[in-house]
Amino acid sequence: MSEAIYQKAIDAIMEADQKLALEAVRQHLDSGVDPMELMNKGFIVGISKVGDLFGSGKMFLPELMLAAEVMQAASQALNQAMPAGRESGYAHIHITAATVKGDIHDIGKGIGIALFRANGFTVHDLGRDVEAEVMIDDAVKNNSQIIATSALLTTTLSEQKKLEETLKKAGLKGKIKTMVAGAPVTPRWANRIGADIYAENAHEGVQGVIRAIKEG
Ligand code: B12
Fold it and tell me: 98 and 75, same structural domain?
């Protein structure tokens, strides 16, 4: 049963069929299985296939945009279904989150934030295409312990490096920890720029925050 729903989600993204996508969401939620399972085994598989087709010139931008709209609708529906702010004792942990300057990809960030909130953290979502200075101002204003950034383009990865440099200049490096995420981001990149936490996916993001807070 689950396999059929995962396949439905993959097809829905590849065919840009929103009705089918929301049907898969409803069936999955009715089955009582963790919403993230459908995201990981269905929708993310579908959008990755679409990304590969686009990357190899077999799909064009208008079709990519239609698939992305369906992906956005499906992920919003699943994010809303995540158990809201369970009493975890983590509400005092504030996270400022954003997609970096020049980058409008925000689906992965949305999933990361939904899981942060489901685990009880307080998140300040600055949206997408956000300057490093704006993130730092927000983190200072809200006493965020972490700034989490998402970058999906090889050309915008450098903005994560800029954040490290700007934090250093402001004397805040180490006081505010950084988390880097996004498809082209690797542990090697995180290490090279001196980011504190690397998150391959939303689940690792949650684990990374908990580890960083424990380490102090
Ligand atoms: C959907 C999509 C779009 C949508 C974005 C819609 C939106 N609102 O986000 C639209 C159509 C707008 C778009 C536009 C463009 N795109 Co685009 N896009 C994609 C695509 C197909 C999927 C991205 C996605 O949402 N994946 C699903 C999510 C869930 O995965 P994710 O973001 O990686 O997130 C996971 C982890 O990385 C991590 N994570 C990510 N962020 C965060 C944050 C936190 C806090 C945490 C904890 C975790 C976390 O957890 C997530 C869940 O596991 C990718 C292909 C790909 N394989 O990545 C191309 C891709 C990224 N795009 C690409 C390109 C080229 C573009 C455009 C330049 C196209 C153009 N000619 O205009 C523009 C760029 C516009 C801009 N300035 O940003 C290229 C980038 C190539 C490169 N080397 O840089 C890719 C790789 C496609 C390709 N194969 O060529 N795109």
Answer: no
- From residue 13, how far is each of 23, 28, 44, 180, 199 by CA, in Å? 12, 16, 9, 26, 25
Percent of the chain with pLDDT over 90: 90
68 Cα nearest atom in ligand 1? 1
List the residue whose alpha carbon is closest to atom 46 of ligand 1: 112
Write down the pLDDT at residue 88: 72
Cβ atoms within 10 Å of 81's Cβ, excluding its own: 18
Last residue of a domain, one of 29, 54, 80: 80
Query: What is the per-residue burial (b if ≥16 Cβ within 10 Å, else e) of 9-45?
Result: bbebbbebbbebbeebbebbeeeeeebbebbbbbbbb
- Residue 92 C-alpha to ligand 1 middle, in angstroms? 31
- CATH label of the domain that carries residue 49: 1.10.1240.10
Per the CB < 8 A criterion, the answer to whether 197 and 176 are in contact is: no
Answer yes or no: do 66 and 111 share one domain. Answer: no
Which residues form the domain of 23?
2-80
Span 102-135, pLDDT tens digits: 999 999 999 999 999 988 999 999 999 999 999 9
User: Which residue among 65, 72, 152 is best mutated to probe the pocket of ligand 1, counting the most ligand atoms within 8 A of its Cβ?
Assistant: 152
200 occurs within a structural domain: yes
pLDDT digits (tens, 9 = 90+) for 128-174: 999 999 999 999 999 999 999 999 999 999 999 999 999 999 999 99
